[in-house]
Structure formats: C-alpha cells, structure tokens
Amino acid sequence: MLFAGASCSTIPRTPPPLAVANSSAVEVLVSPSRPATLSVQGEGARPVARVGERVLTSEDVLAHLLRTSGGGPTELTLRQQVLAALNQLIVRTVIATETERHGIRVPMEVLAQERTKALEELKLHALKAYGMGATPERFTQLEYKQPLDAWLAARDEDVRERWLLHRLVRFDGIRADRVELQVILVDDEALATELVSKLDSGADMSALAIKHSLHETARRGGRMPPMARESLAPAIADRAFGLLPGQRTGVLSVDDGTGRRQFEIVRLLRRIPPRDLQFAEASAEIEASLATEPLSALEFLAWNLRMERLYNVWIDGTL
Known about the structure:
The chain is 47% helix and 14% strand. By secondary structure, the protein is α+β, with helices and mostly antiparallel strands. It folds into two domains: 114 residues, Chitinase A, domain 3, CATH 3.10.50; 119 residues, no CATH class. The strands form two sheets. It has a six-stranded mixed sheet with strand order 1-2-7-8-5-6, sandwiched between helices. The protein is elongated, with a radius of gyration of 23 Å.
C-alpha cells in the first residue's frame, strides 16, 4: 500500500514495508517482523495503547465508550465499538497534545453558534417525534437516555475536537515537507509492467489510472493530496522524495498488509517545501483553504498516519 498501513481503527498495527534488493525489473518491498508489544503486569486495567508518553488503559476505553454510547441501538459488534472508542481516544490525545504545543484555541463564538444551532435542531426533532409541546430536554432523555446538559456538553466537545482537527491537519501540512503524487495500483504484475511500458511510450498516466487503478484516487486520475514523508510507507517515501517533479518509478511490489502482493507506479507531481510558521501567522490561510476545500477523508488519513509515526503509537494486537 502507498500509505504506511492502517487497521480498522485507522492506526497501523504492523510496521510498513521496507525495501530489499531485487534483481528483477520489479522492486519488491517486504514487511519486517512485528515488534514486541508492551508487557502487561498485574491485574485490573491493562494497557491497550500508547500515544507518545501516555498509556491508555482498558478502563479509559470503557469509560469513553460509556460516556459516548448514548444508550441507543448500534449495528457494531462489541469489538468494533471498543476499537472505535480506542481510536477516538488516540486521536483526541494527539489533538490535545498538538493544540497545547501550538497554543491553538477554539473561539468561544464558534461554540456558542454551534450550540444555538444544535438547540434549534433538537426543537425540530422533538416536534416531529413527539408533537407540539415536546421539549429538547424530553427528546434527549427519551432518544439518547441523557439529560440535555450532558448531551450538549458532549456535543460541545465534538464541535471543539472537529474544529481543532481540521485546522491541525492543514497547519501540520504547511509545516511539513510534502510531495504530491500520482499513483496507479493494480493486483496483477503483468498488467503493471504493461502499464509502465505504455507510460514509457508516452501514454497519459491519468487516463491509465482512471481505467486500471484500484486505488481510491483512480477517479481523479491517481492524483493524491500532498503527503508528508511519515504518511507514506518508508520505502515509498524514500523513492518519492528522491524523485524530481515529473519523474516516476517503475513497478513497485508491495504487501497490502494481509500478505497479498500489489503493484504500484508512483509519479512525483511536485515537491512542497515546509514553512516555519506559527499558527497565528497561518490562521487566515487555513480558514480560506477550509472554506474552499473542506478536509477530505484521504487528507485526514494521511495526517493520522503521520501522527502515528511521530507519536510512536502502539495498539495491543490482541484486541
């Protein structure tokens, strides 16, 4: 995979591939052995994750799960709920650390506006569900098994986290050395080799990506958002950051994380140097960019993977 790898919680459990020497035309990238996990001693709460210096325990996950479940029905299994709660805790830990480090604060007017909007929406939901005279207090108690104040406090936290997250991702991008790549990903080595031959003969990479690539960027001609080195598998990063704009690799053979080989072709579109700015200096630029181009799932995943590396995140593989 082009990314460093991700589990269902979006935090990688296994290390990304490393390059090994290969005599064929296809560069083979293999995954190293899994590192030892944290030792667990004693009874009671056990470590289930580590984010930098902070250790998250099973009690932390349980408390978060109970606090955010809302009491409503869910289609997720218990294991999926636990992994989702753990991932939220990991992301929140990173957000809290990064916002404190850069001195970023959510404007009070943002929270006030969002709370007003939430109350108006609750009034409408209450009216539709229970008719005239129904109140937001009754609605949250019946639907979410929570008093209104508790529901609003949880929503305030979600608003604060979302606001900070979107700005942290863009701010981190400004300060990171990044590459904008174009990629084609296929399952068949023969097809990958054929595509390289066509590219060598002048074929359009965007058209080939749209037609053949299995990567989620295929509909955009294989074009990816700018990526920092830590968002990419080390071997891919080494190759990408070693290219000049317009240059591309041959066929790269990678493990998709499940033991299956896939084949990639990567082209460097441009290199974006880092800018050493404080958040206050970049704030206007960030707000303008979010207004015209909201944060994408792919952009968030790239940031998530970069933070996983920078914070040396570990997750208990037995979960």
